[in-house]
Amino acid sequence: MKLISGALQYKDRIAITSNGQSYSYGQLREDSGELAARLLDGAKDLSEKRIAFMVQPGYDYVRVQWAIWQAGGVAVPLCLTYPLPSLAYVLEDTGAQTVVVVKQYVDLLQEYAMEKGLQFLVLEELDLPKVVAMPMITPDRRAMILYTSGTTNLPKGVVSTHANLEAQISMLVEAWRWSPDDGILCILPLHHVHGIVNVIGCALWSGARVVFQPRFDPPAVFRSFLEDGLTLFMAVPTIYYKLIAHFDGLTPGEQRVLGQTMRSFRLMVSGSAALPVSVMERWQVISGHTLLERYGMTEMGMAISNPYEGERRSGHIGQALPGVSVRLVDEDHRVVPLGESGEIQVKGANVFHEYWQKPQATKDTFTTDGWFKTGDIAVLDDGYYRILGRSSVDIIKSGGYKISALEIEEVLRTHPGIKDCAVVGIPDDEWGELVVAALVSGRDEPWDSNQLDAWIRERMPAYRVPRKYLVVGDLPRNAMGKVTKKEVKKLFE
């Protein structure tokens, strides 16, 4: 496990700052080793037993994660906002026999764990032994199970090996020029690759420092920018949108100081959802940074990224990362001609091992020659990939056309009265699918749909104009702040 063994060369450096305390790499290695010994409990090797844990972002989260890996277990991080039925699904699907929690979650899970006969460990109450000899962990062993969002079916457990994680982390360290001098703020949920791999994994692989905040709070984020000596920031588009809104409410003097501080960062990244061009442009004005957009999935970490140096093209996800092969194919898996749209397919050491206990689903998501089928549709524009949408939700088949919902959303967001929007297709006897849009209004007065129709018809072909509009207070989102279009469709039922 190169990630953990590498901590020895940085043992006196600060690895993590959370809850007002700082912890060195040496302390993290020792503390996680003691917890690993407790998890082993006299055994030589956990032998890929699944260990679920429910711990807030911070030092204890990383300590538990590293302990599971050192003991030979498979880490199953639980979503902190899931209700009990959703947590029970993950526990039962993985077959986890041990659950590690902090006191905050005892009331939520203890009764269920006792009923099911699970080992239930409360982190603050554990007596930890001295570090014992740890098993030899080969790269091909399973390391982690994360769950997909389950937009079409029940969530699937995505199994990554240690080799998968090392590939995902090392390629980003190279592409984004990580170094021991870096510091990054983590405000992301830690049951997704964005926070686990892109932030924590890359930072600790590099000897850098991670500053944790328990939840997203715009004033606290900007305070960290000013006080914590950060060099990188990574977030989802919704977070950037909310930071912009808070920034716009500050005094000119506060804006000036904060803007100067942000210009001292070396990199700011956006991902997990399409970045509206309007947000990208506004953030550039206030921070001096052109956000780096990248593309990835639970099943592969990151695969495509705009360059660290060179043009970061608005509305595009960039080029294949080092060690990753990418192609665009038609419905028969034939490579499409340059300039035509096709499904993104990926090969590389970063691609996941399997869907947990779902051999048919695993087989179905790979081509016969080993390419992972992402289900996302894109086009290659002058060397840069541009996402048109997810084939299942963002590509609308209406009146004989294949229409990108994302392209319509980009146009709608430029309207001064629209704060946010989501475009989906709903079944229709005449059109096959009808293009409809849910709008979050930025004004108090009622909408005139005829005026909006006329406005959008001036800006795009008529067949892309939504046939129905629905004004909503907010859009349904998942834990990463990404709009859940399955739920948006229900709004039109």
Quick overview:
This protein is α/β, with parallel strands linked by helices and 493 residues long. The chain is built from 15 helices and 25 strands. The chain has helices at residues 2-5, 25-40, 59-70, 84-94, 106-116, 162-175, 193-206, 218-227, 237-248, 252-263, 277-287, 359-364, 405-413, 449-457, 485-490, and strands at residues 14-18, 21-24, 50-54, 74-77, 98-101, 119-122, 142-147, 157-161, 183-186, 209-212, 232-235, 267-270, 292-297, 301-305, 319-320, 325-329, 342-347, 354-355, 372-381, 384-390, 395-398, 401-404, 418-428, 432-441, 468-472.
Describe the structure.
The protein has 493 residues and is α/β, with parallel strands linked by helices. The chain has three domains: 136 residues, Rossmann fold (3-Layer(aba) Sandwich); 198 residues, Rossmann fold, CATH 3.40.50.12780; 96 residues, GMP Synthetase, Chain A, domain 3 (2-Layer Sandwich), CATH 3.30.300.30. 32% of the residues lie in helices and 26% in strands. The protein is built from 15 helices and 25 strands. A nine-stranded mixed sheet has the order 2-1-10-9-11-12-13-14-15, sandwiched between helices. Strands 4-3-5-6 form a four-stranded parallel sheet, with helices on both faces. A four-stranded antiparallel sheet has the order 16-17-19-20.
Task: Compute the number of strand runs.
Answer: 25
Oligomer: single chain
Q: Bin the helical content.
A: 25-40%
Assign the CATH class of the largest domain: Alpha Beta
Rg over CA atoms = 23 Å
Which residues form runs of ≥5 with pLDDT under 50?
none
Number of H- or I-type helical stretches: 15
Provide the β-strand percentage band.
25-35%
What's the CATH topology label of the largest domain? Rossmann fold
Strand order of the largest sheet: 2-1-10-9-11-12-13-14-15
The mean pLDDT is 92
